[in-house]
Design goal:
Blueprint lengths: L1 H16 L2 E9 L10 E4 L5 E3 L5 E6 L6 E6 L2 E7 L2 H4 L2 E4 L17 H11 L1 H4 L6 E14 L4 H11 L7 H15 L3 E12 L3 E11 L23 E4 L2 E4 L10 E11 L2 E10 L8 E8 L4 E9 L6 E12 L2 E18 L2 E16 L11 E4 L5 H11 L6 H13 L4 H12 L1 E4 L2 E4 L4 E4 L3 E10 L7 E10 L4 E13 L4 E13 L3 H5 L8 H5 L5 E16 L2 E14 L4 E4 L2 E3 L2 E21 L2 E20 L9 E13 L5 E13 L36 E13 L10 E12 L6 E2 L8 E20 L3 E14 L10 E10 L1
Parallel strand pairs: 1-7, 10-20, 20-32
Antiparallel strand pairs: 1-4, 2-3, 2-5, 5-6, 8-9, 8-19, 9-10, 11-12, 13-14, 14-15, 15-16, 16-17, 17-18, 18-19, 21-22, 22-24, 23-24, 24-25, 25-26, 26-27, 27-28, 28-29, 29-32, 30-31, 30-38, 32-33, 33-34, 34-35, 35-36, 36-37, 37-39, 39-40, 40-41
Length: 814
């Protein structure tokens, strides 16, 4: 009997192998759009398949099969067709059904969908591509911006006007022109082909090998498979449009989602369960709704459709993913994203941006060379014209149709007059404007702070057109408040750009803020919120600095640098330091040091010869060490300095997020005030919340040679209500720090505070983000929130009211 059960699938497969293959495309009868993941099955239940993201399918039918072919989808009315139908037609039209998910009650037995979902959750680690040793694929990506179909009212009106010979009004002419234009071409279109290689957990590289965009030539407009959605659906949180959605395929999700087993179909020899899901009523979660098909072969996701369940969203998003077995492993082969701009459009339609990715030539657990990987995760260097055309033709899923070709021709002609727009977008992305073999550094253009007021400057450096291995340039800037010029230059040797291995010589005659000497140098790792505090920063040292530096990425997540420097420092405030029995007010210091930085992931893009930071992932940790040395005729300082910065983020299911940061520093020996620490205060920041700083501490209220501070906040997510005008998120804050000042008698000043906070500084706060929401360009919400902080402990003020500080918070969400 066991042998028979083993042989039976082989016999069935043999029978079907000698049969015929039927194929076709499943299409929405109203929108004329492809229907992904429709179920196509034989009536006898032996075999079946599903349509792909483009609605296409093929199914092998036994030679003597005379039954019906059943076509179903949870959102459409079920139909059946005889096998003979497919000899005459390849299109199956499905009518949308008025499916409304109603609350179900199960007696004695639980909801059968729960068991399937729990099995899928248990099997997540087996099917998650992140758990594979390695993989490689080629991706063909198509991005289109177009209007949706006009509704029936305007469609009938347009058809009637087109067939009428009467004189048309301007409104009627506009309708006909809109209908004609949108039927001939799209508004925008790009195609790209990329090759991606991954060695888990932290090595990946994607290279552009084919690209075409309507109206543009810059690869900045190229797309990759993961631009708008995660690569797979196996994380507990699914990030879409900057929001983290609770994955319905996650532990205990049945407590927060309703699941409905709506169909059972077949794929090859496997049973596939079709389950609809949506957040349970009354659950204030950032949830998804849609459909998932789960195969009994490993309880893996076969395909999934997911969209935001937020009915108040001004911009909607829907993703689709399709998986197939590659060398025994389930792997994504198609990814769809539709982004709906509901408030843009006309005549009963709105604008939609559609992204389609098709993965081909997939290889799993293959040997890859680690030396191929480096800083650059996405290389958008344009291929040669010959290679570009060959790869587009090779990896296109089907030839361009008339509408697509018309889009290219028309937009290429129209956008010739707007080449400045393309150049401007590329300049913003790279922070530079190319000028022959040179480039203007836009980061040097303008700054604002309390000491200089408005700072206007310019920087010019050699570009990759001059040399990929050498970078030479300089900058100059003028502060309108301090009426002082600043300038500097750099010579850098890029030994191995892929590993960020470089050697540089730098010179600067500039200003550095006191208490943040390490942050002044490590600008690429500073807290992005710190820019708000710097707007009101006012205490600076004037410095002439000579610096030699070497940098190298030791491992994918670990970056190291070492330096030697000579600094001549002139405080821009009244201050003197006793060193070896002498009172000094100008300091000459030589230092050597190193920094080790860890980031959960740093993603860089190669664009126009520039390395562009795409983002960093948590956690982030930086450790620095510096010591004074008796070189370059410097004064005889003897100190060591240690700095530590870390940032962590913890996400919780079903909602909630914790931010934790720890900062510490220690100066062993006597160093000038500018090399010490101020305590990380941001009280003067104009009632705006500055993360990772004390909201109730003055910028320069304290001075320490050793300190430690912890900043904690937890966002509980949406609470109380969810409306168009208010979607409050409750947040609690707590911060604590301690700082001592060694050798206090060596420091003297009449204009700066030399008070430590060795008894501990504490503040606690609470607040709500998104108390009020305002529409932004009808595509997103700008959120305004408020928080209150209370200063307590040894350094609180006498009057309770003086310890209360109010802060505004701002957010942006789709």
């Amino acid at each position: 009997m066991r042998k028979f059960l083993f042989v039976l699938p082989l016999l069935l497969g043999f029978c079907c192998a000698n049969g015929q293959i039927i194929s076709g495309k499943i299409v929405d009868s109203l929108k004329n759009e492809a229907i992904a993941f429709a179920n196509i099955a034989l009536a006898d239940g032996i075999r079946g398949t599903t349509s792909d993201i483009e609605g296409n399918f093929s199914l092998r039918v036994p030679e003597n099969y005379n039954g019906m072919i059943l076509i179903s989808h949870v959102s459409y009315q079920r139909v059946s067709r005889p096998v003979s139908y497919f000899k005459k037609s390849k299109t199956i039209l499905l009518k949308p059904s008025e499916t409304v998910l109603s609350e179900l009650t199960f007696f004695a037995e639980e909801n059968p969908a729960f068991r399937i979902i729990r099995n899928a959750v248990k099997s997540k680690s087996l099917h998650n591509p992140d758990n594979l040793q390695s993989y490689q694929y080629y991706s063909y990506n198509k991005f289109i911006v177009r209007p949706t179909e006009m509704n029936e009212k305007y469609k009938r009106k347009s058809d009637s006007l087109r067939n009428s010979s009467s004189t048309k009004t301007k409104t009627q002419k506009d309708l006909l022109e809109w209908d004609s234009l949108t039927s001939r071409m799209y508004f925008f279109m790009t195609e790209s082909v990329t090759e991606k290689k991954v060695i888990n957990p932290d090595r990946q590289k994607e290279i552009l090998i084919g690209f075409k965009a309507s109206g543009f030539k810059s690869p900045l407009f190229a797309n990759v498979a993961t631009d708008y959605q995660p690569f797979s659906f196996y994380s507990d949180n699914i990030s879409l449009l900057g929001k983290d959605f609770l994955n319905p395929i996650s532990k205990n999700s049945e407590d927060r989602y309703d699941f409905y087993l709506t169909d059972t179909t077949f794929f090859e020899n496997d049973t596939v369960y079709v389950i609809q899901y949506e957040p349970r009523k009354g659950k204030l979660i950032t949830g998804l709704k849609g459909m998932v098909s789960i195969s009994t072969n490993g309880y893996a996701i076969k395909n999934i459709i997911a969209s935001s369940s937020d009915s108040l969203a001004l911009t909607g998003i829907r993703i689709q993913q399709n998986y197939e077995r590659i060398n025994g492993k389930w792997f994504p082969v198609q990814l769809n994203t539709d982004i709906d701009f509901f408030n843009f459009g006309g005549y009963g339609s709105h604008i939609v941006a559609q992204h389609r990715s098709f993965l081909k030539d997939i290889q799993i657990n293959l040997p890859l060379n680690k030396s191929e990987f480096g800083d650059i995760k996405v290389d958008l260097s344009p291929p040669s014209a010959e290679i570009n055309l060959a790869n587009l033709e090779k990896y296109r899923t089907e030839p361009l149709d008339t509408k697509e070709s018309k889009t290219y021709v028309t937009m290429d002609s129209v956008m010739k007059k707007f080449s400045w727009f393309e150049k401007g977008m590329e300049a913003l992305a790279t922070n530079s404007i190319p000028i022959g073999q040179f480039e203007l550094d836009l980061t040097r253009l303008m700054h604002i702070n309390g000491y200089e007021g408005f700072r206007l400057g310019a920087g010019i450096y050699t570009s990759n057109r001059f040399s990929k291995w050498i970078r030479v340039g300089g900058y100059a800037a003028y502060g309108f408040k301090d009426e002082q010029w600043k300038y500097g230059g750099e010579l850098r040797f890029n030994i191995n750009p892929n590993k960020d291995f470089s050697v540089s010589l730098q010179y600067a005659r500039d200003i550095y803020e006191t208490g943040y000497s390490n942050a002044n140098i490590q600008r690429d790792f500073t807290n992005p919120y710190e820019g708000l505090r710097r707007l009101v920063s006012s205490q600076y040292d004037r410095i002439e600095a000579f610096r030699g530096e070497i940098t190298h990425r030791l491992l994918p997540r670990i970056h190291a640098s070492g330096f030697i420097s000579k600094n001549d420092i002139r405080p821009a405030y009244n201050y003197s330091l006793q060193l070896n029995g002498e009172a000094l007010s100008v300091f000459s210091i030589a230092e050597v040091g190193a920094t080790i930085r860890y980031a959960g992931s740093e993603n860089f893009m190669q664009l126009a010869g520039k390395k562009v930071l795409l983002g960093r992932e948590w956690p982030m940790v930086s450790v620095s060490y510096a010591r004074s040395v008796n070189l370059f005729e410097a004064q005889n300082f003897r100190y060591q300095r240690f700095d530590f910065s870390s940032r962590f983020q913890f996400k919780y299911r079903p909602k909630g997020k914790t931010h934790l940061s720890v900062h510490a520093g220690f100066v062993d020996g006597i160093a000038p005030y500018g090399k010490l620490y101020n305590g990380r205060g941001a009280k003067e920041a104009e009632n705006i919340f500055v993360d990772e700083f004390f909201q109730t501490m003055g910028l320069y209220e304290f001075a320490t040679s050793q300190y430690g501070s912890v900043f904690f906040n937890h966002n509980f997510g949406n609470v109380l209500l969810n409306s168009r005008y208010s979607k409050p998120e409750w947040i609690v804050y707590h911060s604590a720090g301690i700082g001592m000042l060694a050798n206090a008698s060596a420091h003297a000043s009449t204009s700066v505070s030399l008070q430590p906070f060795n008894n501990g500084f504490f503040e606690t706060g609470t607040g709500f983000n998104n108390l009020l929401r305002f529409k932004y360009a009808n595509i997103a919400y700008l959120g305004l929130g408020a928080a209150v902080f209370y200063r307590h402990g040894a350094y609180q003020f006498e009057k309770a009211s003086e310890n209360l500080f109010f802060r505004a918070t701002f957010s942006f969400s789709f």
